[in-house]
Amino acid sequence: MTLSCERYNLVNSIFTKLIAGLLFAPALVFAATINVTTSSDIGPGNCAVPTSCTTLRAAIINASSGDTIQIPSGTIFISSTLQIAKDLTLQGVGSTLVVIDGSNSHRSIEFSANSLTINDIQIQNSLSVDGLGGAGLLIQSGHVMINRATFSGNSSSTMGGAINNYGSLTVKRSTFFNNHSPSGAAIAIGSASSATLYYSSIVNNTTTTGLLSAAIDNAGTLTAEGNLFHNQEDCAGTGNTLSLGYNLQSASSCNFATGTLTPDYSNVTILPVASVLSDHGRTQILPPDTTQTVSIDMGPSTCTGQDQTGTPVPQNVRCDIGAVEIISTTSPSTGTNQNGLGDDGEHEDDDDEGDREDDDEHDDESNGIGAFGGHYFLLLLTVTGVLRQKICARLYVDKCQRYFLFGNLYEENKHG
After folding, report:
1. In this predicted structure, which of 55-64, 264-273, 368-377 has the lowest mean pLDDT?
2. What are the strands, taking DSSP E only, across 55-154?
3. Phi and psi of 325, rounded to 5°?
4. Are 322 and 197 in contact (CB under 8 A)?
5. N or C end of the chain: smaller count of CB under 10 Å?
6. What is the pTM of this model?
7. Cα 142 versus chain centre, distance
8. 161 or 415: whose pLDDT is higher?
9. 76 has pLDDT over 50
10. Cα–Cα distances in Å, from 22 out to 31, 91, 155, 348?
């Protein structure tokens, strides 16, 4: 019987240490939502409470990895580059434009962590002259997801007028207009990097020197679907290009193949770029020698979601090509297109990081955490107690008297 109790003590010691490890382990940290209260970037700002900061810069500094920062309407004229070295979501929540402006003096954002999401924000008038490129956004590492954003008037002295990407980039329903660089006036993709563009408009991106400059300079891998290209030159570089169909370009430099199920359109005549701005990115596209528009209803036959401005898609029979849908009174259709794409022309398997519903999900998760934490300790003790009883019974220890005090088990043998 003494041997059985010793065996029981050994097993029980394992459970005791397990409980102690769980109880005294570092507390779990859950993502928070931080609200920015002004459009100022004067001084570092402050965060009176963890979930409210006076400036975007202060919110970035005080945020923990995984947090979401909500930015109100207005223009933030940054005084220096916003350095982001943690995983964050930047969410524009204003009823009007949320703008980060580099004041024609600074790079707007430099990212060097694992995951960054930018939703519903315009990044403009940024400048890069340090040789690293990426005036609007420099991606040093990790994956960046961009949803319903605009990059405009950004200029780099080397590469990537809007974005220079040394990581992984996904862009959905966004516009790149009037960005400038000698190489990759809109986006430059590094040799070991990748970029995927869904239903976006890349228009009037040019060089700053008067020489020929492609909007996309690809030394890595470019994947594209449903995009509108109209630039001094659309694509250049030695990287790989994969088309998922429905891309439209004013020339043929992107080398998109034309198929029967998922066609691409090259050498298309496009009206002057002034018409693009006058209608929020909506432009009339004319094929050669005809007045028929080709961007309208030339996407997948079935798709759902919203365009960059929040307009439901499709407005007619099929989705339009580019970031913005031509407004119509026709009721949108629903479903999944022939490429397995869902909302906003994106793959249904992809994380829907750009959806505005994500903000509500943070609250729902937080509400459930408290209930779980309140029963966590009791649950451990209950499970452990049941296991002890089963172990003791299995070892035929019928005369062990047990006292459990703060995780310590005291036993004594009873001799009848």
Report:
1. 368-377
2. 68-71, 74-77, 82-84, 88-92, 98-101, 109-111, 115-119, 122-124, 127-128, 137-139, 143-147, 150-152
3. -90, 140
4. no
5. C
6. 0.72
7. 11
8. 161
9. yes
10. 21, 35, 52, 37
